[in-house]
Amino acid sequence: MRSIFRNPLRAVVGYAAGGGTDMSTRAICAAIEGPLKGTINVTNMPGAIAGTATNFVLSKPADGYWILGTSNYNKFLRPMKVSDSIPWKDFQWFPVASAYQCWTVKPDSPIKTFQDLLDEGKKRPLTISTSGVGGIWHEGDAILAKAAGIKFKYIPYKGGAPAALAVLQGEVEVGGSGVHEAIEYAVAGKLKVLAFGGEKEMTFRGVKMESVTKWVPAVKPFVPIGGFTTVAMRRGTPVEILQKVNEAMKKGKQDPKFREIMEKKVLIPVDIPPLEADRVSALSESVTAWTFKELGIAKADPAKLGIPKPEEFDKWWPPKGYKPNLK
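Predicted structure:
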């Protein structure tokens, strides 16, 4: 077995540079280089809501040298038919940070308030940017649209950063991205945050953000609306290596530079033990797959994929063939 400390390790990010997944992956990789006593080279391979990067990493040996930087445990991939990989079966997950979704417009937009958005969206489909068809921000937009009885025309981009920039450039009427991807533009007065997916009002660096539930109470069961940055290694990676990475992750999340980046970008570091991450990865796919089917945006039938309904999940987990690597 080769040592994990042979340089360099490779991290492949499934979204474009500058987005939440990219920022969080780069930040945690920099923070764990010290504990691992190694160098991690990070590259971007956007496309197919991280399906391109996922399939690429799966094509590499499970030797501890390949890290996948993606979001939400890849819960979208099978429902959207961009990868056959099974989250709980193919990867060992290491959650990094959580983020809130927000909805933005240009300051000179005729849509001045979230109520304006709702009123206009009931008359006609509003163009809205997403981080990709079936991605986390598309999911949040679709949940909002159904709960509010409005229509969107979804314009996909290769990540949340391009999705936020699309509003600024006038390519879409509304931006559907993460707070962390829009906050710098909002602080500079170039974008206006109409609402965000948190449970209550929040002010950050002078930018006031009101909860979407103020206007659409029907979305309360889905709040907080947002996602996780999750990095992973192939599940067949030697357990000794996975253990070292897990310990490095714990130390890396306490690194002052990592914490500073998280705070600046309104990202919240999360600590979910590997054993629980296995379960959450499967549950996340279950919830999203069946939500997508209900919303009419799923490309594959979750029943045919063997994905249990959320209400049946506790009886289903752990599934046949599941073996935990770490606790």
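Summary: The chain has two domains: 9-98+226-316, 100-222.
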